[in-house]
Write a structure and sequence with these properties.
The protein is α/β, with parallel strands linked by helices. The protein has 11 helices and 5 strands, in the order αββαααβαββαααααα. α9 runs antiparallel to α11. The longest helix is centred in the C-terminal third of the chain and has 76 residues.
Length: 347
């Protein structure tokens, strides 16, 4: 009875021991077996030009990004079927390769790009295997606008952007080294970077000055003096020409002013002559009218005639100078006209 009870217990112990040994063997085999090789190719600044040939899909990720971690398994499955789809699959760690993130101008994570013979397009769909497979099989990438011109990762502009991003990444790593590894306060690290920036700027300015001095070749002293001597007579000749032109302008202006003054004086004299002639014409008819009125009046009495006779004698004595006055006015007009004629040719 006791032997019968010990039999099942011994069998159970033996079974447990066999299972334990089997599990241990499987663990040893799994440990000895090499890990499964990932078909996703890591891309760096040294080998990224491989995407310029053939068809590629690239994924930009960061180790700390939760969304990137969710798509890791899907991306691995997509890479395993890359041979069937005739496409290569790669990935870029933006922490380790900030230059490539700047070259592709990555602003969100995860970011996917399609490349076909050096022409790049942004894939904005979900990172699910089925969607990625349909994107390649149905050639949906043909409906997407390519990154051309300065936006192309292979352009000179994006190469400069890659350099800036790589420099910023190195500065960030250096800052972490100061603050985390060495335990330097953050404000001390910033102060060090400010001083280094000023020193670097001064050094670059000095280099530019030296380069400009090397490329600038001053003329020999003899040649410079000879060129100055040749320039001086030319300058003197130019100044003399300018002076002559100014003098001619002044002379012409003076002559024009003189001519205008003479014309104004002539106009004033002509107006004066016309006014005097009009006054003489007005005086002539008045004298004739007085004589006619004297002839038409009836003869007055004797005493009145004697008085009138004495008055006429006085009037005749006063009226006799009129012809002489008109002759004097005519002479004065002729003299003024002759003077005006003499002035005209002299001017």
């Amino acid at each position: 009875m006791a032997g019968w009870r010990r039999g099942p217990l011994f069998a159970a112990l033996l079974t447990a021991w066999v299972l334990a040994v089997a599990e241990a063997e499987t663990d040893r085999e799994q440990a000895a077996r090499p890990p499964e090789r990932s078909l996703v190719r890591p891309m760096t600044a040294s080998n990224w030009t491989l995407v310029m040939e053939g068809e590629w899909m690239l994924k930009f990720y960061a180790p700390w990004c939760p969304s990137c971690q969710q798509t890791d398994s899907e991306w691995e499955t997509f890479a395993k079927n890359g041979e069937i789809l005739q496409i290569s699959v790669g990935k870029v760690d933006v922490i380790q390769e900030p230059g490539l993130s700047g070259r592709f101008f990555v602003t969100t994570l995860p970011a996917f790009f399609h490349a076909k013979d050096g022409i790049f397009r942004r894939y904005r769909g979900p990172g699910v295997y089925e969607d990625l497979q349909n994107y390649i099989l149905e050639k949906k990438w043909q409906a997407v606008e390519p990154l051309t011109g300065w936006k192309s990762p292979a352009s000179l502009t994006m190469s400069g952007m890659a350099g800036l991003f790589s420099i910023s990444g190195k500065i960030w790593h250096l800052h972490n080294y100061f603050t985390v590894t060495l335990g330097v306060p953050a404000w001390c690290s910033y102060f060090i970077f400010v001083i280094a920036t000023l020193i670097f700027g001064l050094f670059m300015g000095l280099v530019l000055v030296v380069i400009s001095e090397c490329f600038y070749l001053p003329l020999p002293r003899n040649l410079s003096e000879h060129s100055e001597q040749n320039l001086r007579p030319e300058e003197v000749h130019l100044t003399e020409q300018l002076q002559d032109v100014e003098e001619e302008k002044d002379d012409s202006n003076e002559e024009e002013n003189k001519d205008s003054l003479v014309d104004d004086e002539d106009e004033k004299e002509d107006l004066g002559y016309e006014e005097e002639a009009e006054e003489d014409e007005e005086d002539g008819p008045a004298v004739g009218a007085d004589e006619k009125s004297d002839a038409q009046d009836p003869e007055p009495p004797r005493e009145a005639r004697e008085d009138e006779g004495s008055a006429e004698v006085g009037d005749d004595s006063l009226a006799q100078p009129h012809p002489a006055g008109t002759e004097a006015v005519g002479d004065s007009l002729r003299q003024r006209r002759s003077q005006h004629a003499d002035k005209g040719p002299s001017a």
